[in-house]
Structure formats: C-alpha cells, structure tokens
Design goal:
With 425 residues, this protein is α/β, with parallel strands linked by helices. It is 50% helix and 19% strand. It is built from 16 helices and 16 strands. It is elongated, with a radius of gyration of 36 Å. Mean pLDDT is 85; it is low at 14-19.
Length: 425
C-alpha cells in the first residue's frame, strides 16, 4: 500500500535529484592603469550591479601603479562598507603599487598571483609642499592604511611600512607576513581556493559556495571614460591653460567666440581638478599671472608684466597638483613636461593677446583720430580760419592763435571736415 503511494512521487524525486546546483553570481570588474575618478565610477557600477543581481561576491582585478588619493579613498570606502564579500586580486603580469596596494588590502579576501608584487605606498610630492606638510601627509596615509589593516585583520606593522618606508613585497612574502590571504596563478585557481572560504564581517560570518559560478563582467561606462580623461593631471592642466588664455583673448578681442570656448574648457578643467588635491600656493601664482597679464594690457610696461605673467603661470601649473599616491614616473615626468607645455602656451598666448590688443587699439584710431598729432603747413589764414596742407591734402582749419602763411602747425582736434590746429614749436 505504501509503495503504491510512493510510485506517483518517483518522477518528482528524480527531477529534484538531477537539478543542477544554483550557480553563485560573481561580479567581476577590472581596475587597470592609474586610479582616477573613472576608476571609482566603474567600481561604483560594479557594486550597483552586484546589489541588483544579489551577487555572492565581487571580484576586483587590479593592475595599477597608483593614482589619485581622493578617488582611492572613495573606492576603499565602497569596499569596506560592502555587505557583499569583496575579493581583490592581482593577476599574473600585474602589480598593485601605491594606491593600488591600499585597494588590495581593503578586500574581505586579498589575493595575488605568485609572480606579482605589492607595496611602495609612500606619498611623494611634485614640489611646493613644505617638509611639515609632507610629514603630515605621510602620517595621515600611514594611519589610514593602519585602520584598513586592523579592520581586515592584516599585518598592521608591515602594511604601515609600505607607507612610511616604501616597502615592497612579493606575493609569497605578502602571504607569509599576513598582508594577503592567498596566492592563485589564475582566476580558476582563485575560485577553486575560494570555494568554502569563510568571510567574516563585523557582525556575521558566511561561507562562499563557488562550486558552480556565473561570472558577470562589468564594462567601463561612458561617464567613467570621460572622467578618466578629465581627471588626468596633464589633460586638466592643459585644458585650464588653454581655457584661461582663450577666455582672456575673447574678452580683449570680442566677436571671435574665443571667450565661449575658453569658458567651456575652463569648466571641463575644473571638473577634473575637483577630484584632485590642489596646492593653494600654485593657485595664488596662477591668479597673480592673470593679474600681471591684465595689468600689462591696461598699462603697457614693454613686456615686463607680461614676462612676469608667463613665469607665474608656468610655476603655478607645475606646482598645481599635490597627489601623493600617483605612480613614481608621474613625479619625474609631470614637472618637466608641464614646464615645457606651460611655458610654450603661456609665452605664445601672452604674445598673441598683447599684439591683438595693441592692433585693436590702433584700429580705433581712424579718420580724424588718425590725423591728430600730425603736422601741416598754413596756406592761408584770416580771422581764426584758413586752409592748410597736411600730408599733401588740403584741409579747412581753425585756431585761436594768430597764424601766417608758411607756419608749421600741429593738429590737435577735428570737427567733421575741419581741423583744429596750433602753432608747432
């Protein structure tokens, strides 16, 4: 009797038994190159997708030499606040230096390929910062990574040395010293090792079940690509310089729409600068450069104030950004490259603006104004009126002085076709 009751349930039991296991969803996002606002926007998109799909984990694949401090802070904040387990991974052929190393240690699980390295997060400056300011920045970043290491249960002392002493570790050293959690030479090996891994958060513990996995890859959005360009210090500086001079050129030479182009370029540059740390001394130098140029236009000093403007704007451009976690190459290439670019743009644009301004002033002197100050010879004169020859042309004249034929006069004014003259000498 009981067997007869079970027979109809056999198909259902078989169906349940052969059903494949539900695949775990992993959202994978690649952060490659310099860390900037575009990197943060891309990562933010990955977290949004993970939330929408109720993902089991987020995999951040890192290959970066460093980048902007503010963008790094925002990315780390996203990772530390995530309720979804975050795995940070440096794949073969890549490395995580400076800002990249900070992002690596912020994951719930930090992994590296055996051939990779991590570290060298000591803040560096392009110039203009005082020794005390540099020490404060190093102290701040050291405290910042110490807090991350404590939260994730990593080796605080070694991670702090990455900042204070520029320490670099191989993957093997990082694992042995408790900086990372595991070594995997491929994504498949990484997922295999993560299967069954226990993730501990502030108030809970979960176990990753990655026996079957669905990978959701995140593409870089258009907004990220735009901000990636705008938040590049080189591009932001060039946009600022060209925009600044275009605006001044347009205001001194209206009708050519240069002021419109300049305003647009300045806005774009300020959007990029808005996510970067700016040196206020450099900002003052740039302001002085603008004031010197305007002073040269208003009260010509034969180029002295124009030269001072070029020097101030060039120095301001070199010192403008204080980004301590950029790649090492940045601190050697940015000053030299920006010196050439800034000096070239500033010198050429200052020369053009001054010449155009002088030409426009000269063009205003037309008709009677052009003849004022010129000399002529009296042909006849009587009762305060007469005629004179000026540059081969005959003009009616008038004067309050007593003049005679042959007297040399200078034109001091004009009323229509009549000139007002005075005796010359």
């Amino acid at each position: 009797m009981r067997l007869a009751l079970l027979i109809p349930l056999i198909p259902l039991i078989l169906f349940i038994a052969i059903q494949p296991a539900i695949a775990a969803t992993i959202v994978e996002v690649k952060i490659k190159g310099e860390i900037n606002e575009g990197s943060y926007i891309t990562l933010e998109k990955a977290f949004r997708i993970a939330e929408e799909r109720d993902a089991d984990a987020i995999l951040i694949v890192l290959s970066t030499p460093g980048g902007l401090l503010s963008s790094t802070n925002k990315m780390v904040e996203l990772i530390l606040a995530s309720e979804t387990p975050v795995v940070t991974y440096v794949p073969p052929g890549s490395f995580a230096a400076s800002a990249g190393s900070i992002i690596l240690i912020s994951g719930h699980v930090a992994a590296m390929a055996g051939s990779t390295s991590v570290g060298a997060a000591t803040p560096v400056f392009t110039g203009g910062a005082s020794e005390s300011a540099e020490k404060k920045t190093i102290s701040y970043v050291a405290g910042y990574v110490r807090g991350i290491a404590e939260k994730r249960g990593r080796n605080v002392h070694v991670i702090e040395e990455m900042v204070t002493e520029g320490r670099t570790l191989t993957a093997k050293e990082a694992l042995e010293l408790g900086v990372i959690d595991l070594i995997a030479d491929s994504r498949s090996e990484l997922l295999e090792k993560l299967n069954g891994w226990k993730i501990r958060s502030d108030d809970a513990e979960m176990t990753l079940d990655l026996s079957t996995v669905e990978i959701v890859k995140v593409e870089k959005p258009l907004k990220a690509k735009v901000f990636e360009v705008l938040s590049n210090p080189f591009i932001a500086s060039i946009l600022f310089l060209v925009g600044l001079y275009s605006l001044i050129f347009g205001l001194t030479s209206p009708g050519m729409f240069a002021e419109t182009v300049g305003a647009i370029l300045l806005i774009l540059s300020l959007i990029g600068m808005g996510v970067m740390n700016v040196n206020y001394i450099a900002a003052i130098l740039l302001l002085l450069g603008i004031l010197f140029l305007l002073a040269e236009l208003m009260t010509p000093t034969y180029g002295l104030l124009g030269a001072a403007s070029v020097i101030c704007i060039t120095l301001g451009s070199i010192m403008l950004f204080e980004e301590p976690l950029m790649p090492k190459e940045f601190y050697s290439t940015f000053p030299s490259l920006m010196t050439g670019i800034s000096l070239g743009i500033a010198a050429v644009m200052t020369f053009i603006i001054l010449k155009i301004f002088q030409l426009r002033k000269a063009r205003k002197k037309v008709g009677g104004e052009a003849i004022i100050g010129e000399k002529g010879v009296i042909i006849e004169f009587k009762d305060g009126k007469g005629i004179a020859r000026v540059h081969g042309e005959i003009w009616q004249i008038e004067s309050d002085q007593e003049l005679r034929e042959g007297d040399e006069v200078v034109i001091v004014g004009r009323d229509g076709l009549k000139l007002k003259v005075e005796r010359h000498g």
